[in-house]
């Protein structure tokens, strides 16, 4: 019958779809007493958008159709986009699982068959602006660069031709609910079931740090790479202020953080887990016998694992709420840290300082520094200096692309060797340009933002990293592939800069208009009055005594005086 045939077709589509969905939440108490919560959702689909064409890829089950069409239309090989509110404090919170700079960041690898990369890039930014309700349409060639070494593909393909790479940031982009809503709609279950029910807007944005991202890349499904798939990874990282109890212990719960509890896993998810970092032996309730160890960012951590696909996880109340209390403040100092600031006085010249710290006690390692500076800050590249421990530190690799006024920004990439337990300072002088009056923002006295510097490095690991590829490893430890046991990849973003430019007095046109209009009104009004007024000669009125006499005569009936 019809119902049996439709059921058969539904089962056939599900069996041939070759896609799967995983979700996980990692909760980690921070050294500062804050709480770090990291959501990760991964959708795998065994298909090829670039070769099969959009007409053949017509059935979308778990993978969002809007993103699939974008990959196919613009021949995107790899896409990474993030929206961040706040700045990640590395010295207080340690390293995040997936870093991101303040504002919006977008970098894309296009397929090598694309002939007009700039045209595809411009159209892609406009489409993504509509999908995520963001201001990505303000990305143009004046804030787009082509890094030569800093951003390599994280998926399949060891691309070396950076002509097919585009990178841009919008450091002033404000992240709000209108960006979170379309991000949640990309999930197979939306915000109706699974871990996404915890994403309450007023709680997420009432935090010290909030970052949401989308990463799309082709990956291998096994260690021999016999089969390939497209991976869509949606991440959301948030840092909440700490909660302190009366006994001096820090405590939190899912309900305190999100004002909600978990009731079920996403029905479409093959895996749904909650990881809680218990390396510092906190008090955890309810307890779980499932434990997991993972080497994350060079540190071996122990996690309590809660499997949401099991009914016993929710108990009789069909509600899952975690409670954690801890008192320890032990934290390993991050081995790599960077910061940046502007020095100088006046509105003509200045100096950009980038400070990179190597906190390893006895190991030196190289870092790759990338700076993208707007064209209206005219760099004096001959003033570039790199010093470590009060000595000159000559970079082994320098790539510099000068800016063109109103066409492209500066791009500076350097490979610097950091001595052990040292501070390396990079300085360069610049001169501020005078913009046209139409190029200023509505609030020019607030200043102009300069995107974060990017520091990429393979940091020596204190613990042997695992290079074995397994599908069962946690999502938070498998984003960046590990190729060596002795090191791990770290990317650090500095603070964005706020630079004041020479600003004209925009109130002067208003003053001139008011003064001119006043003079014209007074002059023209007087002249018009003289031209249009008619003059008449009025006879003088009789004196008061005569008028009084005539009044008396009128009463007596006597003729009036002439």
Give a structural overview.
This protein is of the alpha+beta class and 562 residues long. The chain folds into 2 domains: 306 residues, no CATH class; 157 residues, Immunoglobulin-like (Sandwich), CATH 2.60.40. 18% of the residues lie in helices and 34% in strands. The protein is built from 10 helices and 26 strands. The strands form 5 sheets. The chain has an 11-stranded mixed β-sheet with strand order 5-6-4-3-7-8-2-1-10-13-12, with helices on one face. β15 and β16 form a beta hairpin. The termini are far apart. This is GPI transamidase component PIG-T-like. It holds the Pfam family Gpi16.
Offer a concise description of the structure.
This protein has 562 residues and is of the alpha+beta class. The protein has helices at 2-16, 49-52, 65-73, 90-93, 117-131, 177-185, 201-204, 254-258, 508-532, 544-556; strands spanning 19-29, 35-45, 76-85, 103-110, 144-145, 165-170, 209-220, 228-240, 250-253, 271-277, 283-285, 291-296, 299-307, 323-326, 336-343, 349-358, 365-373, 377-388, 391-392, 397-401, 410-418, 422-432, 448-450, 454-460, 487-493, 497-499. It has two domains: 20-325, no CATH class; 336-468 and 476-499, Immunoglobulin-like.
């Amino acid at each position: 019958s019809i119902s049996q045939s439709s059921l058969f077709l539904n089962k056939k589509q599900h069996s041939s779809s070759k896609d799967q969905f995983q979700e996980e939440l990692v909760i980690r108490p921070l050294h500062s007493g804050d709480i770090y919560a990291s959501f990760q959702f991964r959708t795998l689909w065994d298909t090829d958008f670039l070769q099969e064409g959009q007409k053949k890829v017509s059935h979308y089950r778990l993978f969002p159709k809007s993103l699939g069409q974008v990959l196919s239309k613009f021949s995107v090989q790899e896409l990474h986009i993030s929206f961040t509110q706040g700045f990640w404090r590395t010295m207080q919170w340690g390293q995040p699982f997936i870093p991101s700079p303040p504002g919006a960041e977008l970098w894309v690898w296009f397929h090598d068959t694309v002939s007009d990369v700039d045209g595809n890039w411009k159209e892609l930014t406009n489409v993504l602006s509509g999908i995520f309700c963001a201001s990505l349409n303000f990305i143009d060639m004046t804030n787009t660069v082509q890094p030569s070494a800093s951003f390599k593909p994280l998926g399949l393909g060891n691309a070396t031709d950076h002509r097919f790479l585009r990178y841009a940031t919008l450091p002033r982009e404000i992240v709000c609910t209108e960006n979170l809503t379309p991000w949640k709609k990309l999930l197979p279950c939306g915000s109706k079931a699974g871990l996404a029910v915890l994403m309450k807007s007023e709680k997420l944005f009432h935090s010290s740090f909030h970052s949401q991202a989308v990463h799309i890349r082709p990956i291998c499904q096994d260690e021999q790479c016999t089969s390939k798939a497209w991976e869509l990874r949606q991440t959301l990282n948030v840092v909440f202020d700490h909660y302190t109890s009366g006994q001096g212990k820090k405590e939190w719960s899912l309900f305190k953080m999100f004002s909600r509890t978990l009731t079920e896993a996403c029905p479409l998810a093959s895996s749904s887990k909650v990881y809680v970092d218990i390396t510092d032996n906190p008090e955890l309730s309810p307890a779980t016998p499932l434990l997991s160890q993972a080497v994350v960012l060079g540190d071996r951590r122990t996690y309590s694992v809660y499997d949401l696909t099991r009914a016993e996880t929710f108990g009789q109340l069909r509600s899952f709420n975690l409670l954690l209390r801890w008192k320890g403040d032990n934290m390993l100092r991050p081995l790599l840290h960077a910061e940046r600031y502007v020095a100088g006085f006046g509105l003509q010249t200045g100096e950009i300082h980038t400070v990179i710290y190597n906190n390893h006690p006895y190991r030196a390692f190289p870092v790759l520094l990338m700076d993208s500076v707007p064209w209206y800050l005219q760099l004096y590249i001959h003033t570039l200096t790199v010093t470590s421990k009060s000595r000159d530190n000559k970079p082994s690799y320098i790539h510099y692309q000068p800016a063109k006024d109103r066409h492209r920004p500066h791009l500076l990439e350097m490979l610097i060797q950091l001595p052990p337990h040292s501070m390396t300072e990079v300085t360069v002088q610049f001169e501020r340009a005078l913009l046209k009056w139409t190029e200023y923002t509505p609030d020019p006295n607030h200043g102009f933002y300069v995107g974060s510097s990017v520091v990429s490095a393979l940091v020596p690991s204190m613990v042997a990293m695992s290079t074995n590829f397994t599908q069962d490893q946690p999502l938070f430890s498998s984003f960046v592939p590990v190729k060596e046991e002795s090191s791990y990849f770290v990317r650090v973003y500095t603070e964005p800069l706020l630079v004041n430019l020479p600003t004209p007095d925009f109130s002067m046109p208003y003053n001139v208009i008011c003064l001119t209009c006043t003079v014209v009104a007074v002059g023209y009004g007087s002249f018009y009055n003289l031209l249009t007024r008619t003059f008449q000669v009025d006879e003088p009125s009789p004196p008061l005594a005569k008028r009084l006499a005539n009044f008396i005569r009128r009463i007596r009936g006597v003729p009036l005086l002439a």
